[in-house]
Design goal:
The chain is built from three helices and 26 strands. It has 354 residues and is mainly β.
Length: 354
């Protein structure tokens, strides 16, 4: 898991016929990438090509290549977690009276495995991602030289996440906010993530992933912040309301007379809106902040109906916000798309990017 870098590096070449441009040279190494890229940000359907070189030259004749992927684990497995009983990666205290207090950058665990996507030969790897392959991957490689020496590129995974010397490949659905948000699948959840982690896709929390995606789609240098701080970047388009255990939406009244409400898709709520979440069932006060979590409204879905011809059940859109609608958010094991009902009994508010 903590392998050292040696004399091999990855070159990203996206698009045929582009001449590589030298970026840096140190200790005999030369890193080149088309357009000066140190990472690849691609859309579904884009052709991606990566080339291997050694000391700035083509690989020696007869060298054998193993293409590798650096895979962060979704939570602690071998190491003691900083915020028990959670196995979650945390840079800050998770839960309790000191919730949110900085405790230091956590060590991310991970594995180095053979690269199992795309096609490859001894010098090049090619991949055209499809809609089921959203998210981020980190690439490395190992060659065996004709004289038997084995040379490996950087494969470190440790404090702060995957080494930035690995080649990052991030795939999004499109250039919308939700499209960019999907490029964070496979990135580990880190409570209290740092801006450097968020920008490099090495670890990110629920609020930072929303800011990171919006920074990319808007081109604005929005400040990373907590869930509460998102109100500086977005405007509230609803009053607080409650999702009851039975799936009913009710207003946020505190006099015991909460009445059912209806929030219409396309009018009161839209895909890409933010849902601020406060977990109502927290009797011991483990989550003392006004808003505990945030997700993005993904898709309007009604109650599940049987699928046709053996297909899985689906929920047809019903035009109103409800427990069956899909929300994209950073769960404790990474980015997920799941029904709002999975959050249980919660208080909610809808925010929209300014």
């Amino acid at each position: 898991m903590y392998a050292r870098a040696s004399w091999l590096f990855l070159v990203a070449l996206v698009g045929a016929g582009q001449s590589p441009t030298p970026l840096e040279a140190a200790d005999g190494l030369t890193l080149v990438a088309s357009g000066g890229r140190r990472a690849i940000d691609a859309r579904v359907g884009d052709g991606i090509e990566v080339e291997l070189r050694w000391n700035g030259r083509e690989l020696p004749s007869g060298a054998r290549t193993r293409w590798l992927e650096l895979v962060p684990r979704p939570e602690h497995v071998d190491l003691e977690a900083p915020s028990p009983p959670y196995r979650t990666y945390t840079n800050a205290q998770l839960g309790g009276p000191h919730h949110g207090r900085w405790i230091g950058q956590d060590v991310i665990e991970g594995d180095v495995v053979p690269l199992a996507i795309g096609t490859s030969d001894e010098t090049r790897w090619r991949w055209t991602p499809n809609a089921r392959e959203l998210g981020t991957r980190w690439l490395a490689a190992e060659i065996t030289l004709p004289d038997g020496r084995v040379v490996k590129s950087a494969t470190d995974i440790g404090r702060g996440g995957v080494t930035t010397r690995a080649l990052r490949v991030s795939v999004r659905a499109d250039d919308s906010f939700l499209g960019w948000l999907g490029s964070y699948f496979r990135v580990p959840y880190v409570f209290g993530s740092t801006p450097a982690q968020s920008e490099s896709y090495r670890g990110i929390d629920c609020a930072d992933v929303m800011v990171a995606a919006q920074r990319r789609v808007s081109g604005r240098a929005l400040a990373y912040t907590s869930v509460q701080g998102l109100e500086r970047h977005a405007v509230a388009v609803s009053e607080p309301f409650v999702l009851e255990r039975d799936g009913t939406l009710r207003d946020g009244g505190t006099d015991g007379t909460r009445v059912p409400i209806v929030l219409r898709f396309g009018v009161d709520v839209r895909p890409g809106d933010l849902l601020a979440i406060d977990y109502a069932d927290d009797p011991e006060g483990q989550l003392p902040r006004p808003w505990d979590h945030v997700g993005a409204v993904l898709e309007d879905r009604g109650p599940e109906v049987p699928g046709r011809r053996g297909q899985p059940p689906t929920g047809r859109a019903d035009g109103i916000l409800g427990a069956d609608d899909l929300v994209r958010h950073m769960g404790l094991r990474g980015l997920v798309d799941e029904p709002l009902a999975r959050h249980g009994h919660v208080r909610l508010r809808i925010w929209r990017w300014r």
